[in-house]
């Protein structure tokens, strides 16, 4: 079996981060097929480095691949070309094997870096960083029982990169509290010994540290009690950035620890900026099942629904109540009585009488129609006379008036016919 190649890329595994985090600035604007081909070449190169036992280059290549996969998943064409991407880059089982390789590479590199630092007379890479900061900015921490307290103790938030360095610094004593739901925590979480899940369903108004301790499962109570002895307590949820919103789980947990927990100092509490989503994006090899996707965030539009004033049904007058009000007088249309009586009398007529009336009306209507035609013909002939005879104007007006009367009579016949 061949030995790993000598370390040549950095002094600590954090040095490799600057190399695999660098992606082209325009990578997000490129076509999905081009990005997939780049990822495919990266897989081939990383596999060659892994076979040749160049652990640093293999680690850098695989981590750069993970960042490239995140870019591919956010591409606008990913949903439409998902099958093509799978054919080019492999299935989930292929990526699980890559995650296993990353875990082995990281463990091996950390051991080798520590061993090289020990041989050179350096205690840890973190000490080099602290000395460098101290030379530039003054002392970064105070000694307490021989332990150097990092400068981040007084900070309210830490980034994913800072937390990763703290996890790998054996001198830092801390407890990480993950307040995501139990389902999400079990599916994917940090690979860290002192990690406790404080489920969000416990983080409601009125909870105290003691109540949380009783509500946690037995295996989590021991970890929860470590908050009293650890130098730092890191809080994180899915993706909170900056100051947490009031009444959110991480806000309530922070409030409980600061105001209702006598066993912990509020200066020890720090929040992870960007939450677990930021950490798994930067360091997937340090997480269990990093491919697990966070739940879809639905924008709650009904936050202020309780502010809507709804009418009280008891204040709405019903019809029965309106009749009982004093001074109420119902309106009666007495003209409808005549129409009702006429309709009733008409319906009493025998069918034969109705048919006789229809025939009479039709005869009158035909005779009236003939008169209309004759009168209109006479009127047209009069209009054609040039020049007009004396008295023609009066005759024309008389004929027009007669036509109007005949047409009105015709409309009456039609109405009577359909009314019978």
From TrEMBL:
SUPFAM superfamilies: Rhodanese/Cell cycle control phosphatase, USP8 N-terminal domain-like. InterPro entries: Rhodanese-like_dom_sf (IPR036873), USP8_dimer (IPR015063). Residues 4-115 form the USP8 dimerisation domain. GO terms for biological process: protein deubiquitination. Coiled coil: none annotated. It holds the Pfam family USP8_dimer. This is USP8_dimer domain-containing protein. It comes from Anopheles maculatus.
